[in-house]
Specification:
Number of domains: 2
Radius of gyration: 25 Å
Structural class: mainly alpha
Strand order of the largest sheet: 1-4
Number of strands: 4
Length: 205
Amino acid sequence: MNFDEVLSKIGGFGKFQKLLYVWICVPQIFLAFHMLVSVFTGAVPPHLCRSTLPSAGTPSTLNFSLLSSSDGLPELSCTMALNHSDAAAPGDGHLTMSCQEGWEYSTETFQSTIVTEWNLVCSNASLNNLGSSIYMSGLLVGALLFGYLADKYGRRIIILISLGIQATFGVAAAFAPNFYVYTALRFMVGTSISGVIMNAFVLGQ
């Protein structure tokens, strides 16, 4: 007697199995949000050195088309031009320095992202990519850790624990005081996602 015959003898794919399958699939919807959220939270809006802007300028009224360098001046998103009275530039070039007073960001598309919150632009731009890499490392660690724990303690309890970790650290990430705490929280969210995906897949078979 094969598995299909046993299944038909006990009632087949009945109401309980259908309900269980739905409850297993529901958490996967929330996982998609965690996987895609970095596309929006890590978006880099147009930005300009605050030192290059008129004193009356605000992010809503600024012309971020200044980012183009059609006039031969360096781009103003990461550098600002110094006056010749401050220092002499060799030849006809323009002496520049990094932004000293921070940046102003366009709010046309995004009101706030981790980039605007912690100035992850220019010399700090690599930190934005690092945050995504740490999140993916969490997926790897979670696959190894929760796969072993599920074999030892059962998949149901591990799924519930993973969902609890995901909810707790996912909400906490929204209130992170700095980038390093944010990435640590996202790492924990990544581990929990692996705990849900793997074990829910096995239970759904």
